[in-house]
Amino acid sequence: MIKDILNDAEHRMRSAIQVLHDDLAAIRTGRASPALVEKLPIEYYGTLTPLMQLASISVPEPRTLMIKPFDTSTLKAIEKAIQSSDLGLNPNNDGKVIHLNLPPLTEERRRDLVKHVHHRLEEARIAVRNIRRDSQNDMRDFEKEKLISEDELKRGEEDLQKLTDKYIEEIAQQGKTKEAEIMEV
User: Which domain holds residue 78?
Assistant: First the structure.
């Protein structure tokens, strides 16, 4: 029973880490990366659709993204979505593709991005701790119902804490890596 709770907790914690990883990939660094815009919602026939489903995104140069829509009628909608996003990028539309030139980040913008990264890291830590709390409650319920012994409860809680510490450390590691990327000039 405890093994099932721990397996479930680990699966949920791994999912929280994956969400964090995807979120961090979308935060801009000095280099161009398709992850920056691939999840950008585009108004397509009345439905918000991620850009990666409407266009191919490539990196022809280190500071340039090229977005080539599968259907050229979506060019204007893509351009509008990029302008209204919080990316701070100006799309250049040549009628077939959109070029996004990423200007070098200013020191102030870098600090803002690092603050944003820290905010995302804290959200991930909270998610992991909430998973730990839910799992602890499940274990305690089992103990109250006499399905497991007090010793099994203690061992289960220790294992759960080790699991939590492992994922909190992984979150910190991802944060350090992303912060170094952002601050790199």
Answer: 34-101
